[in-house]
Automatic annotation (TrEMBL):
The lineage of its organism: Eukaryota, Sar, Alveolata, Dinophyceae, Noctilucales. Keywords: Membrane, Transmembrane, Transmembrane helix. This is Uncharacterized protein. The chain crosses the membrane at residues 87-110, 339-361. It comes from Noctiluca scintillans (Sea sparkle). It comes from the Eukaryota.
Amino acid sequence: FWLKHIRSRFASILVDSGIESIGTLTANTMSMKETVSDLRNRVDVQGFKRGMSQKFDQMSEEEKRISKMITAASEKAPPSLTKYIQAAAHVLAWAWVVLAALLPIMVLAIEKAVEIYRKLPQDIVSAIAGFLMCFTGGTFPTVIAAAEAFTQTGWKESQEAIGFLWDELHIIAEESKKDDDVDADGDGIKDVNQITGSELITRKTLLVMRKTHADKINRALGSLYVGFLSVAATLKVQFARTISLGVSIGNVARPVAETVLVPPLTHLVPKEYHHWIRPVIDYICKAVAVSVAWWIQRILSAYHSAIRGALMCTRALLRIANEKNWYSTTEDKTMLDEYAGWVLAAFGFMCQMYFGFALPFPVD
């Protein structure tokens, strides 16, 4: 490649510049050869190839280990699923290796986001969150309800539990990485590459059991379970009530709809399908009524989120004003935050109604 490049380069030089001196041409040739040699020495192509080869070999070993563990685990799965799991073992192992390669980047991004969040003044965060809640509560009623339930029941305990489990995960990852490099018999082959998939699963399981705190993990998982259970119960009760309201409205509207629609439909629908007229009317009434009930629930959620978010925003702004010495009173001694909050809540609710509980352009 380089010789062809040199020849073509010299040909263009001869044509364009009209070089007639063979000595000059020879000097140019030697100079370009030295340049190519210097570039090769600096880039170290062979070293680069060796490094990439080692990377690929390392990834291949990791894939083999994961594939071996998946194949061993598939033996305990139902017989009808075993062959499919074993067939997908290599794909799952590759996906695991890719995820493991991306995990440090995701962890770094999460840690940076948490660091930025902790550095921000909490009153500013509360003001921004309240303002967004005031204007978007009707668009995301389920998210608002879940956040409210989680905040009131188990946010603090769950936050501590997530932090502890995150630290434990870091410890397990470091210990597993050290275990992968162990060569106890000194034969030059890592021990994890010399055992079966079942033995590898047992080895990693025992490693996790040795390096973690069982009681603390149990309490942390219990805290998370209680928090998530409270959210699920709140959403189930709240939206089951909405569906129940819709069904009740549908049952009330059905007799009127049957009185109005059954006679004309009897003449329009063929006789062999008459037995479907009343059930279809019943289904349509309930579907329309449930949609109306959901719309009512959306209005209630928008009203609640507008009040809750507006008061959160104005009280946070009042605390900021006190810290900056712009205003010398607290929220317990004045009604200013309530007055401003109600005005902001009314404006936020009207904006949600105007946009039909959807985000306006360009944030839609």
